[in-house]
Design a protein that fits this description.
It is built from five helices and seven strands, in the order E-H-H-H-E-E-E-H-E-H-E-E. It has helices at about 10-15, 20-30, 40-45, 90-105, 120-130; strands at about 5, 50-55, 65-70, 75-85, 110-115, 135, 145-150. The protein has a seven-stranded mixed sheet with strand order 1-2-3-4-5-7-6, with helices on both faces. A hairpin with a 5-residue loop joins strand 2 and strand 3 (about 65-70). The radius of gyration is 14 Å and the shape is globular.
Length: about 150
Amino acid sequence: MLRIRQRVDADISTVVGWIADADALNMFTGPRLVWPLTIDQLAAMTATDAVSAWVMIDDRADVIGHFDLALDEGPARIGRVIVDPSRRGRGYGSALVRLAIEEARALGARALTLNVVADNAPAIATYERAGFQQLPMSDRPDVRTMALTL
């Protein structure tokens, strides 16, 4: 059974290890971080009270996915979504998004938004299956903004 728990410091190196190159880093977090990704860079992204980082684990407590939630005024925001590359193509992305939606609801969010790299078709399809809809405008042409009412 898959479940989520808050990310702990020991999980950060696992997630950083999934980022094989600059292209993977861009898919993971856009241009906000620089290659090579470091533990300190990823840790700093969630160093505020408004952002919480989560990992998805299996029955053996192996970390197989990651996301963070930003809860501030307005809609909650999901970001830094990734599944262990060795486990992709098995439905873990859909499970991770479903669990992120459940957590956002549990934390009181009424809507959830995200940005996704425009040419990341697998991620866009996963978000659409979960009910997210693409919004007509984005701040950048290489990014799609998506939203879900909870």
